[in-house]
Design goal:
With 258 residues, this protein is an alpha/beta fold. The radius of gyration is 17 Å and the shape is globular.
């Protein structure tokens, strides 16, 4: 465990597809109360900047996170929700010395050489609902940008939130470029594989359903696991429970996690 008085690593929070830094607003106060320095970021092209999502590439995400991390002292902890897991994994592969640990919150945790489409294809035969929100996702005419209609977002992402909270969150979702979403993961045991990981399962997830979460865990083994009785976004519906599940991991010393 962390020695009393020892500062924990700064925490960088990475949102998932179609979302923004706002998804962490309810969780951050719990983390800060535990003396964790938090930096919730907006990925390029998510509506918080002037970039056209159609031209944003996955590399732009990685460069943006690198720009944030290099301003912080020492390695950071990454918390990644949903598709933000791809960014966390790839960042750890590219700059393993800058990452002390990763928390995946119902996150996409892909093994080397696979895409999320590959994972869904493996699962869908036994679990037809593994397709999640994909059938409701709307593509631009050139298929470079997608968005999720509010009704589908409420049903798949925010099903365990209050009606008001679910509607408000669904309205805040923005279009996302496929260049930042549809990727094949490339990782190695010597770089990404050496980073301690915690996977937070969302047991009632309707987007990345539990069998899909567990398939990814089996294909990319080694993560500690915590389970929450929530939907896809526990940081919105149950931030207190999520905080309790992840704070001990975030405050543990690097030596303890090694």
């Amino acid at each position: 465990m962390t020695v009393q008085g020892e500062a924990a690593d700064p925490v960088v929070l990475i949102h998932g597809a179609w979302a923004g830094s706002w998804v962490w607003d309810r969780l951050v106060p719990y983390l800060e109360a535990a003396a964790l320095e938090c930096h919730a970021i907006d990925l390029p092209g998510n509506g918080s900047d002037a970039l056209d999502p159609a031209i944003v590439k996955f590399e732009n995400y990685l460069d943006h996170v690198y720009g944030v991390v290099r301003e912080l002292a020492g390695p950071v902890s990454l918390i990644a929700h949903s598709g933000g897991g791809n960014v966390a994994s790839a960042f750890a592969e590219s700059w393993p010395n800058l990452v002390s640990r990763i928390v995946y919150v119902a996150g996409i945790m892909l093994p080397d050489g696979m895409s999320f489409v590959d994972i869904v294809d493996r699962a869908v035969g036994n679990h037809p609902d593994a397709v999640g929100v994909n059938p409701a996702t709307v593509y631009s005419a050139d298929r470079q940008v997608t968005h999720v209609p509010p009704e589908a977002a409420i049903a798949h992402f925010f099903n365990d939130c209050s009606t008001d909270d679910a509607q408000a969150a669904a309205r805040r979702l923005t279009p996302q470029g496929e260049g930042g979403r549809a990727i094949v993961m490339r990782t190695t045991a010597g770089r990404f594989g050496r980073i301690p990981r915690l996977y937070v399962e969302a047991l009632n997830d309707r987007s990345v359903i539990l069998p899909v979460q567990r398939l990814m865990q089996s294909l990319s083994p080694g993560a500690r696991v915590a389970s929450l009785p929530t939907g896809h976004a526990p940081q919105l519906s149950a931030p207190d429970q999520l905080a309790a599940a992840i704070i001990p991991f975030l405050r543990a010393s690097r030596e303890t996690l090694a």
